[in-house]
């Protein structure tokens, strides 16, 4: 069987900014029509965003929004979500893992489906720590999808579990609102997304939140039952892994892992004791700190080790089955 040949596309162009004739030829007619309908909204916002940056940018805000953008990345959720489970809140950890997984999945799907560009730079200044941002399409904003869906879910949990007069309830609501607002507005401030991108991400976030909240008891029953159907998530996620490897891998681990933990007495007792023994004092705080440091360190070690193993195992498999592959392939190609 002949090897697949990959044509290179100029990488000095941002994703979504090639000649419109290329998209008209490559996309289905109604998909091309939808892109042409949405493109003017993104284009006309570019000078507005450039004028806004010129008016309000300061060194402090630059650093603040660049760093808060990290609160919507894979690395942040890789650290944050396990901490929830380690300290006994497995239900909340699973729920937010599902929200972020499907937020990344569906926003990535829609980005590739719409092929809409980010705001043009120049005139907009892009402020980011990511070197490959220009290789991704813009609509909808993944950061907006994840931050808003997580914030809505945290607010719903606070309102459902805490009394109305509780200061903790108001603190949770204000914290979630601040988190979502700083991330979402930061994407506009940093020139990474248009208002249209953020609105699309917000709509998707609400749909994901509503689905997750409405089905939370069903998903909990799924992982706490004695049925082996939970392991079907592995082949299902493997069929979808081409759209987003990281979070499909998370879902493959969260559901079977939660089921196995629930059916293993030692693991279940460990989670229950973590939830019951949260207290304040010098020694408990030291134990909590060490638990976080050791746990996060193990996460990074595991991640690096798995990448090394995959680099050894996967290339021969791809070559054997003549699957598309190219070492260090540029995303926009």
Report on this model:
Keywords: Endoplasmic reticulum, Hydrolase, Membrane, Oxidoreductase, Peroxidase, Transmembrane, Transmembrane helix. The protein has helices at residues 20-26, 29-56, 59-68, 74-86, 90-114, 142-161, 167-189, 195-214, 216-224, 233-240, 245-262, 265-276, 282-320. With 333 residues, the chain is an all-alpha fold. The protein has one domain (20-278). Residues 1-11 and 328-333 have low confidence and may be disordered.
What structural keywords apply?
333 residues, mainly alpha, 70% helix, disordered N terminus
Layout of strands and helices, then pairs:
Blueprint: H1 20-26, H2 29-56, H3 59-68, H4 74-86, H5 90-114, H6 142-161, H7 167-189, H8 195-214, H9 216-224, H10 233-240, H11 245-262, H12 265-276, H13 282-320
Helix pairs in contact: 3-7, 4-5, 4-13, 5-6, 5-8, 5-11, 6-7, 6-8, 10-11
Transmembrane segments: 64-86, 92-110, 171-189, 195-215, 227-260, 280-302
Organism: Absidia repens
Domain Phosphatidic acid phosphatase type 2/haloperoxidase: 92-213
